[in-house]
Design goal:
- With about 425 residues, the protein is an alpha/beta fold.
- Helix content is about 40%, strand content about 15%.
- The two termini are about 15 Å apart.
- Residues about 410-415 have low confidence and may be disordered.
- The structure holds uridine-5'-diphosphate.
Length: about 425
Amino acid sequence: MRIAMVSEHASPLATLGGVDAGGQNVHVAALSIELARRGNEVRVYTRRDDAVSPERVLLAPGVEVVHVTAGPTRHVPKDDMLPYMPALAAGIAADWTDWAPDVVHSHFWMSGVAALDAVSRMASAPRVMHTFHALGVVKRRHQGADDTSPAEREWLEPDVGRRVDGVVATCSDEAFELKKLGVPPRNISVIPCGVDLAHFTPDGPHESRRRRHRVLSVGRLVPRKGVGTVIEAIGALAAEGIDVELVVVGGGASNGGRDPELERLAGIARQTGAGERIELRGQVPQSALPELYRSADVVVCAPWYEPFGIVPLEAMACGIPVVASSVGGLIDSVVDGGTGRHVPPRDAGAVADAVRGLLLDEPQRRQLGANGRKRMTARYAWSRIAADTERSYRATIAAANGSAAPVRRRAKGGAR
Ligand code: UDP
């Protein structure tokens, strides 16, 4: 098949860990690469955010990233990008004049807007699949007036859900939300994100620690990730006399500016009185993350809400137990008492209790870590996620055509 991925703000080539670069970038990159390994041709369309990148970049055999000029050729926060979607759609449709896709898979609501627009410009309309990665209605529920999404999101996002041919939700909680938004249940499949099992492994080098115990937090530094809660919890454990340190990975402003969230977290660390136990490390490339995960006794993910959450998969793949808020995708991925512990969101006391329990019980940590690796191997390999996603494309195409799906394989030699 020819598959067009549309990911307006999240390029698979981006540096991860900034405000707008995280799980979606990883998902689009890994899914595209695996779909190409299966013999498909993939083009990923993303908005050009600098003046120097080539128009086309080969990400992997069979996967090309296409930079479409739409708006200024510099970083634009994703919440300011809506006005550029018509130009993005026009650029994508222009590329399809000599490369007609069989299916378009858009990522995040604005890409859905652009994808539907691009498809409407085509004579032979390909099927459109969509993954939301986050839902405005959930964001608004938790962030209220702090949500900087454009007002149009309130009606355009559900509209995307209702108009596309199929929605790939990443967890069951999201599927419930989508039904409430009026997306027909028959159009929803639930396929989680995956993890790179060859990169994130239990065996291999690990960074040395400064204290007896190490707790790790990894992710974009935005308030809803709940890193402040983790810092408070570790501060409390340090005050109890537990010899523990916390390493926080992620953050750092784009274009070298200030990162207000890093400054806010540094303030919380000082208030706990255990500031020297807390290291705010900033962005770390994926290549260096396995040795950091392996250096930890426990990885904590304490978001207020979480559409999916790839970080806990990476931790489990490295054999490290995870303390996770029981929200969104973490309900499905982390098994309470099996691969880690669930805690209520925004509850530093509960995080401290769960982490303390694990730090003081090494055999349990080992057991939960080993279970985590097994769970990742059994269910979350990107190869499996790509196979399930391809099946959902074919089912959607077949349902729409009322017949067998067209199969267009890439010429041999490029794949695998
Ligand atoms: N990440 C990274 N370096 C950093 C911070 C994050 O490589 O400094 C990666 C992390 O390993 C994970 C992704 O960014 O693969 C975050 O994905 P997740 O789904 O956990 O969160 P999201 O960004 O989607 O909110």
